[in-house]
Amino acid sequence: MFSVLIADSDGLGHMWGWGGGMLLGWVFMTLLLAVAGWLVYTLARGAESPSRRNESSALDVLDTRYARGEIEREEYLERRADLE
Predict the structure, then answer these.
(1) Count of helix runs (H) and strand runs (E) in the chain
(2) Which of 7, 12, 44, 68 has its CB 3.0 to 4.6 Å from that of 16, i.e. a possible disulfide?
(3) Segment 39-69, tens digit of pLDDT
(4) What are the angstrom distances between the C-alpha of 3 and each of 8, 16, 66?
(5) Tens digit of pLDDT for each residue in 9-39?
(6) Under 8 Å between Cβ of 32 and 24
(7) Each residue of 3-15: b (16+ CB within 10 Å) or e?
(8) What Å distances lie between residue 66 and 28, 32, 33, 71, 84, CA to CA?
């Protein structure tokens, strides 16, 4: 009986270390899964967006240059055909 009192002198029980570690494990696992989910979402969304964004951006620049008179109609039509 005396050895039990010495081993459990903090009054928290024998499983205190495991309980705290399990809680920390759950928090870490939740954060890890959240980061992994965010990464997959970002990569999947980014895979289709840049090509569309770059095309429309290039076309916008081309349209603006043509509207300002920086390039001739023939060059405009040729570059537009290349971009499409």
Answers:
(1) 3, 0
(2) 12
(3) 999 888 876 655 555 556 888 888 999 999 9
(4) 8, 18, 90
(5) 555 555 555 556 677 888 899 999 999 999 9
(6) no
(7) eeeeeeeeeeeee
(8) 55, 50, 49, 5, 16
